[in-house]
Specification:
Helix content is 39%, strand content 10%. The protein is built from 15 helices and eleven strands. Strands 1-2-3-4 form a four-stranded antiparallel β-sheet.
Length: 500
């Protein structure tokens, strides 16, 4: 639960079991008593985007909660300003809100707004908050929830009782199916013609400060093979394979390094999505719900239907349990399926092939027998838990689908072992250092660029929908620029400069 001045955010489950952050806003009743009410428009929006991460959802709820706090505190000031002079109140409000988020509301030790916001530490965070608000506004507008201002808004002169109830007022930012259930700017006189018919659409992006373009942080290339080879071993003398090494965590790490996938994507792989052909791994990425699978009777169903009817499960991006795994809107060349492309590094592909045979021949079958032995249904997911792990307070048993939490813990343990064995490297586990699993994806993109692969090829290999997305992965680092300049000194025609 997160509390603020006039709003509260609580993670709750919807009727169909989806966990989302629910926004409650505080509004005064007719007798002045504060009352918390839910914002249903946000529930619809987040439910429609259930595949997104909880962090993404909370950012949307927070942005709406903050704009509510701001407008509650500034309502009387807006009324005075509107009565004194014609003012495009919606545009003015957005500019001021963005500045308050960025610079804080305290000036010379005083805060006339009563918000008590501190300056935002990062311009990037300002951009994320305001873009989150913009995303929600656009979604509501595209779904027909804000094509006109409510009847009466144009003609109300700001005096007397507002014609709008607390439940149906101005679509204050054009961001709600039922007027956002707020009653703030509805009380502000708007001079006819002083504001656009869709007040905020198209305004936010110009006001938000663009995030600086930075090169993506990559896993240090000189340590990739040693990292995939060494620290996942726990007891090299153990007879049992699972006691000897963290097989599942290592196998998934090798796959990420070799194919450049996001860490959530391998969790969607089924057993038959990975094959060894002519001694080389061949991996196919299928859409978790819409790809079709053959049935024993010769027909075919979607993966979503198969999981529901035969395993009692959902596609993992639709889960709200420990089994949830993210899924971005990625580009698949065949619509619902695409083959992954391995880096031409023999050590990585051979490492994967060797471990694949041990995992599929012995380890996974044994783990799945433990699962079915407990009376639970079989399932087709390739990566399964070795058992003994915990997801918050939820125990992960042998044979359960492998989880994001389990892999994160596996990576951290391996990295800590590795950094202790190589103290001279000064490695730390952080996104900034490129040493998280996503750093392998950054390294994959940078390696393709160094090989001279054209942009469209890199886009296809990384499954980006935008032709520009891969560029951040291929930006040169400061070290690479310095090395390139130093190595080029010998061939630089210095005399041409010195003779000028």
């Amino acid at each position: 639960m997160t509390r603020s001045l006039h709003h509260t955010i609580v993670v709750q489950r919807t009727d169909d079991g989806i966990a989302i952050p629910v926004l409650y806003i505080s509004e005064p009743t007719s007798d002045g008593v504060e009352q918390l009410r839910v914002v249903p428009g946000l529930i619809e929006y987040l439910t429609a985007h259930r595949a997104r991460s909880m962090t993404w959802m909370k950012l949307r709820a927070r942005s709406l909660g903050l704009i509510h706090d701001y407008l509650r505190q500034r309502r009387q000031d807006f009324e005075r300003a509107a009565n004194a002079t014609p003012i495009a109140i919606h545009r003015y409000a957005l500019v001021e809100f963005t500045n308050y988020i960025r610079l804080g509301t305290v000036q010379n030790g005083e805060d006339p707004t009563g918000l008590h916001w501190q300056p935002c530490a990062s311009p990037d965070q300002v951009t994320l908050l305001v873009q989150a608000l913009d995303d929600y506004i656009k979604w509501q507008h595209q779904n027909g929830f804000g094509t006109k201002l409510p009847a009466g808004y144009e003609t109300w002169d700001g005096t007397g009782e507002s014609p709008f109830s607390a439940a149906e007022t101005v679509r204050r930012l054009y961001a709600a199916k039922y007027a956002w259930e707020f009653s703030l700017l509805a009380h502000v006189k708007r001079t006819k013609g002083s504001a656009p018919s869709v007040p905020f659409i198209g305004q936010i992006e110009r006001l938000a400060r663009p995030a600086p373009v930075k090169s993506a942080k990559r896993f240090p290339d000189r340590y990739v093979i040693p990292f995939l080879s060494e620290p996942f071993f726990k007891d090299s003398g153990a007879v049992d394979a699972l006691q000897r090494q963290d097989v599942v965590g290592r196998l998934m790490s090798i796959l990420l390094a070799g194919t450049g996938k996001r860490q959530c994507e391998p969790l969607h792989f089924w057993v038959n999505d990975i094959q060894i052909v002519d001694g080389k791994p061949r991996v196919f990425l299928h859409h978790p719900a819409f790809s079709r699978v053959e049935t024993p009777d010769g027909g075919s169903v979607t993966r979503e239907t198969y999981l529901k009817e035969r395993c009692g499960l959902k596609p993992r991006y639709l889960e709200s349990t420990k089994y949830k795994a993210g899924w971005k809107n990625i580009k698949l060349s065949e619509g619902t399926c695409d083959r992954l492309h391995w880096l031409p590094i023999e050590d990585i592909s051979q490492m994967f092939t060797d471990l694949y045979w041990e995992y599929t021949s012995n380890i996974r079958p044994a783990l799945m027998r433990q699962r079915t032995g407990r009376g639970e249904d079989d399932h087709p997911f390739f990566f399964v838990s070795a058992g003994g792990a915990r997801h918050n307070d939820d125990y992960e048993a042998a044979g359960d689908p492998y989880t994001t939490s389990a892999f994160r813990n596996s990576w951290e343990r391996a990295f800590n072992r590795f950094s202790k064995r190589r103290p001279e490297a000064g490695l730390v586990l952080s996104k900034k250092a490129g040493t998280t699993p996503h750093g392998l994806r950054h390294l994959y993109g940078a390696t393709l660029a160094k090989m001279g692969l054209p942009g469209p090829f890199i886009q296809a290999a990384m499954h980006h929908t935008s032709p520009h997305s891969h560029k951040i992965y291929t930006e040169a680092t400061d070290v690479e620029i310095n090395d390139w300049l130093k190595n080029g000194q010998a061939n630089w025609p210095r005399s041409e400069w010195e003779n000028r």
